[in-house]
Structure formats: C-alpha cells, structure tokens
Amino acid sequence: MTIAVTGATGQLGRLVIEQLKRKLAADELVALVRSPEKAADLGVAARQADYSQPGQLQTALAGVDTLLLISSSEVGQRVPQHQNVLEAAKLAGVRRVVYTSLLHADTSPLSLAAEHVQTEAAIKASGLSYTLLRNGWYTENYTGAIPGALAAGALVGSAGNGRIASATRADYAEAAAVVLTTSGHEGKTYELAGDQAWTLADLAAEVSRQVGREIPYQNLPEAEYAKILENVGLPQALAAAIASWDVGASEDALFDDGKQLSVLIGRPTTPLSEAVRVACQ
C-alpha cells in the first residue's frame, strides 16, 4: 500500500506525515507538494503536485493506493482544484480518497461550507472509495491570537457565547493517520471535534490564569472586529471572512458533542489548557 498526502508541507500535512511514519515504512508514503525542495525534511518521497495542474497531478499519483486530499488553501478555487485531483486520481488508479472537509458541512452557516459540500459531492460521484473527515476548528486558530491579546490587554472577537468544540492540528492529524491505515472507514463521514467545548470568554479566562493577569474577552460587532483584523495587516477580504466565521461560531456552528474524534484516536482530545500553555511559551 502506498499512501499519498497532498499539501504535505502545510501545517496539517506535516503532522499527518509524522503520524504515518509511526505506522508505516517511509517508502510507503508520498508527499505531494508544490515545491519538493521544501519537503526534504519530511523523510519520505516528495513529488511535485499543483492542484491546478491536472497532468502533473496524474504523474504524481502514479502507484498510489490511498490519497489524503487536504483541502486547498485557496478559498474560492477549491472546487475546480479538488476536481482536478479527483480526476487525476481516477486516471492514476488510486483506489481510495480521504478528504478533510468542514464540521457539519451540509448544515453549516459558515461561508467555507459550500466548497466543501461541492467537493464531497464530487468525491461521491467519482466512483472512488472514500472517507470524509469533517474537521472542526483548529484550537490554534484562536490560540494564535494570544500574543496580540497579551499586547493589547484583551482578547477580542465576535463569537459571543458560542460553544467552540475545537481540537489541535495534532489531534486531527492523528485521526487522519488512523483512517488512512486501518480498515472499516469506507463510505463513512466523521464529524470531528474536541471533547470539551469552550467560549472565547473561557479562552480569555484560561489565558489570564496562565499568565497571571486579567485578559478579558471583549465581544465586538462583526464589522468592528473585521476592521481590527484589517488594521493588524490581514487583507480586507480575509479579515471580513474571519469575522463572519466568528459570528457563525456565536451560533454554535463550531459545536459538536459526538466525540467521534476521540473515539478514532483512542484518547481524549488535547484540552484547551494545554494548547494555551504551548501558545504562551
């Protein structure tokens, strides 16, 4: 069996490769990346594979049995790019595809959902055996804001009292590795989220506890939060999108209590306190 991972030099992809190396020989793994020279430290074969280059994708997928399709980072271009990968996979003889989708993609109010739903439909129509990993939010999406919150004296956002059942990238990577290397997952859709949900006020309280000073949470209107993100250097469109996702979180779009993630990985998901500790180091 040969397993290939797209986006293998990305933050999630690298962690998946490391998990797979614990389970399989390195020569059974292939890293699919835009720039193979950036994958030299992965310790596995690297092949050039650009989501937008169908011919290149087919060559890169030669001899691959199972493919982890990590969703493209190019929001707005995901559907055609993912379709390119699926068509190349069929031509190359790939047997199974595992896709990183979005938590409750079919009912999610988040703007990200539509491209994931369309990709899921394309996967089901492809004739390939498949597993859908509907990943919730990465805890790092929020702990990444801790340095700025410490500098400003407050954590800001637009998530209100919404419950966020996040997990770390390492948790999701471990789940992907389990699904890629064990049987019984064909045709299944997993809703993956952290065991313990929290609010941004909970996050602020945990940060306050660990740093020894009060860092309150300040809930802002969507437009005001977007403007703050823009002022710290994010492109206007991305700032607006992030603020809108926070509003979605206020409506529990990032909440799930099914604990399918911890069942898959055979342990509790990483607690918020541990992710905060790492971010505060």
UniProtKB/TrEMBL annotation:
NAD(P)-binding domain residues are 7-180
Q: Which organism is it from?
A: Mesopusillimonas faecipullorum
Tell me which CDD domains the record gives. TMR_SDR_a (cd05269)
Regions that span the bilayer: none
Question: Which SUPFAM superfamilies does the record associate with it?
Answer: NAD(P)-binding Rossmann-fold domains (SSF51735)
Q: Tell me which Pfam families the record gives.
A: NAD_binding_10
Entry-linked InterPro entries:
NAD(P)-bd_dom (IPR016040), NAD(P)-bd_dom_sf (IPR036291), NmrA-type_oxidoreductase (IPR052718)
Q: What name does this protein carry? A: SDR family oxidoreductase
Q: What superkingdom does the record give?
A: Bacteria
